[in-house]
Structure formats: C-alpha cells, structure tokens
Design brief:
- The complex is a heterodimer of chains A (112) and B (113).
- With 112 residues, chain A is an all-beta fold.
- Helices cover 0% and strands 54% of the residues of chain A.
- Chain A is globular and about 40 Å long.
- The termini of chain A are far apart.
- The model of chain A has no long low-confidence stretch (mean pLDDT 93).
- Helices cover 0% and strands 53% of the residues of chain B.
- Chain B has no helices and 11 strands.
- Chain B is globular, with a radius of gyration of 13 Å.
- The chains are: A mainly beta (112), B mainly beta (113).
- At the A-B interface, β4, β5 and β9 of A face β5, β9 and β10 of B.
Chain lengths: 112, 113
C-alpha cells in the first residue's frame, strides 16, 4: 500500500540556519507533491507544489526538490526564523486518482 | 485567512448522537474536501465533492455522510458517534485546475464524551 514517511522526531535548529525536512514515499509514483505548514490546532496552509518533471522549486526562503528516482522530496527553509516553527506536512499525489494522502508531518522548532 | 469558513469551532456531544459540521469554500472554488485529524492518525481524507457531486471517497465510515449544496457550501454529518470520533475535522477547497493546491478552513474540534 502507499506509504509516506516523514521524520516523526522534532527537528530543532538555530535561528538563521537552513532547515531541511525529508519526505519519502513508497509503492506509488506521484505526479505532484505538495508541502503544507500546520500550526497547533489550526488548518494546514498550502506552501508549495512541485511536479514530477520539476527538479526544484523556490518561493522566497523556501525550496523544494523532488527526486522521483529516490522517491523523495526535500523541503528547505533558509535563514530560518522562530516564526517558522510549525509542523510541515508533505502530500504526494497521483494524477487523476483523486487520492489525497498526507504524511504525518515533521515538527520544526527554530531556536532564537 | 484562507477564505474557507467552518462552523461550529467546537462541538461537545455524547456517544450515540448525531452532529452536522458546516463548511463554506473560498469564493469561486467548486471542490470541497473533508478531512479528519486525530493525534494518532494524522490527516485522513474522508470525501471530496465537486460542484455538488461526489468526486472521491477516502476512509469515510458508513456512519458519516456529506453533501454539497447548490450554493457550494458543504455539510458533513456524523451519526452514532463513538469516543474514537473525537478529532479535528477540516474542510478544504480548491479551484477547478488546482485540485492539489487545497485551502483549509480553521476546523471543527469535535469531542465525544
């Protein structure tokens, strides 16, 4: 069955450093992969979508890579700030099947 | 603010009861999605509606049902509630050509006692 793995352990990093979060998936080949941010008790917020034919996508301090051979996406936040502290969810999606599967997320804490 | 609204914010009810959660999508969005999030399960897709018609089903229990009305708002009905149904329920919406770019509402926290 389709499986998504995100590091369940919290990631603590120092302010100003680059945070790198990993999303691995198995048993399917997504055409799209989304990253969302979620704060405690609030709805996820869409950040970025990357397509299978795109190796990398950037938005301000965010960068996402998508390696279909490794079945992995990396999510980078450069010059991290305490306000970036949140849980980040990845959601690899297969085109046309309308299945919306989210990883359990990685909690990021940026220390001042 | 995503533009998606959900009511009520909190709901406390007893086992065996029935509740209705309501969602209004962003202006112009035709697709509505319902998700359940509990501590041990993560975000689970329940069901999707597109312009009033059911488009996709996920892990939705038979005790749960949903519909989307002509004005595009949606309701999720949960019946014969069990303690395990306690969770955050999110509604999301998306545009026609961006189904993988979903905008989530603030959620309804359901507590079943």
């Amino acid at each position: 069955s389709q499986k998504i793995e995100q590091n369940s352990e919290a990631l603590n990093i120092q302010e100003g450093k680059t945070a790198t979060l990993t999303c691995n998936y198995t048993n399917y080949s997504p055409a799209y992969l989304q990253w969302y941010r979620q704060d405690p008790g609030r709805g996820p917020v869409f950040l970025l979508l990357i397509r299978e034919n795109e190796k990398e996508k950037r938005k301000e301090r965010l960068k996402v890579t998508f390696d279909t051979t490794l079945k992995q996406s990396l999510f980078h936040i450069t010059a991290s700030q305490p306000a970036d502290s949140a849980t980040y969810l990845c959601a690899p999606s297969t085109s046309g099947t309308y299945k919306y599967i989210f990883g359990t997320g990685t909690r990021l804490k940026v220390l001042a | 603010d995503s533009g998606v609204t959900q009511t009520p914010k909190h709901l406390i009810t007893a086992t065996g009861q029935r509740v209705t959660l309501r969602c209004s999508p962003r202006s112009g969005d035709l697709s509505v999605y319902w998700y359940q999030q509990s501590l041990d399960q993560g975000l689970q897709f329940l069901i999707q509606y597109y312009n009033g018609e059911e488009r996709a089903k996920g892990n939705i229990l038979e005790r749960f049902s949903a519909q989307q009305f002509p004005d595009l708002h949606s309701e999720l009905n949960l019946s014969s509630l069990e303690l395990g149904d306690s969770a955050l329920y999110f509604c999301a919406s998306s545009g026609l050509w961006r189904v993988y770019e979903q905008y989530f509402g603030p959620g309804t926290r359901l507590t079943v006692t």
